[in-house]
Design brief:
The structure is a single chain. The chain is α+β, with helices and mostly antiparallel strands and about 230 residues long. It folds into 2 domains: about 100 residues, no CATH class; about 100 residues, Homeodomain-like (Arc Repressor Mutant, subunit A, Orthogonal Bundle). Helices cover about 55% and strands about 10% of the residues. The protein is built from 11 helices and 5 strands; from the N terminus they run ααββαβαββααααααα. A 5-stranded mixed sheet has the order 1-2-5-3-4. A hairpin with a 5-residue loop joins strand 1 and strand 2. It is globular, with a radius of gyration of 21 Å. The mean pLDDT is about 85.
């Protein structure tokens, strides 16, 4: 479970979940609903916290309970209190599940000991590329990189990964004198160089990994990159 905690930022891609160890040694899973009307936030929050709790119990393979649940809404819910079977704090600054630190020592049920070191090596390498919290442009570059090769590479998706609104994202890019399309092009060029050094791939495969429609679009971009390097 400690590894699940460590790799949560990678798995969630920095989205709306934050896994933190508090100063008093508890594990907190915080959740922030985005893009919802006020009347829908309570339902979304309660359902999401319940799902997270179910996942934690499934991973641990036992009846783990939170030490405390915190929610931002004010209305008391006996159903919520009964479901989690622990104290519920209302009108809090966060929506969060709070667990005892001992949760991190529990093994994950049905873990594959042969696959684990392979996955750990891969994720540790990815974590090294995560930007520091204060690096605004680095955070955006990271989000673009994570979106390459998917059908969802867009300003909207990158903003969501960075946990900001689209307008805020555009303002931060403007502060660094770069547009979203230019940043995507730069990241593609960097990843293309990394792929070229790591081994032979067909142009079609490389184009797919970089999020181009086809190999001809990649070839056109490569010609532009070569001219820029001159």
């Amino acid at each position: 479970m400690a590894l699940a905690h460590r790799y949560a930022a990678f798995q969630q891609q920095g989205d709306v979940f934050v896994w933190k160890t508090t100063s008093d040694g508890h594990l907190e899973v915080r959740y922030e609903a985005r893009g919802l009307e006020e009347r829908l936030r309570r339902q979304d929050t309660e359902c999401t916290l319940a799902i997270v709790q179910a996942i934690v119990r499934q991973l641990a393979g036992r009846a783990v309970r939170p030490a405390e649940v915190r929610v931002q809404h004010a209305s008391r819910s006996r159903t919520l209190e009964s479901h989690f079977a622990c104290p519920v704090v209302y009108c809090d600054a966060d929506n969060a599940l709070r667990y005892e630190a001992s949760l991190l020592t529990l093994p994950i049920r049905a873990a594959d000991p042969k696959l684990l070191p392979i996955l750990m090596q891969y994720v540790e390498q990815e974590l090294e590329g995560l930007p520091s919290p204060g690096d605004e442009l680095g955070r955006i570059r990271w989000a673009v990189r994570r979106s390459l090769g998917s059908a969802t590479l867009s300003v909207e998706r990158v903003a969501r990964l960075c946990r900001v609104g689209e307008r805020t994202l555009q303002r931060r890019l403007a502060k660094h004198d770069i547009t979203f399309s230019d940043l995507v092009d730069r990241v593609r060029q960097e990843v293309h160089a990394e792929l070229s050094r790591s081994g032979h791939r067909s142009r079609t495969e490389t184009a797919e990994l970089l999020g181009f429609n086809d190999a001809s679009a990649l070839a056109k971009a490569m010609r532009r990159w070569n001219k820029q390097a001159l």
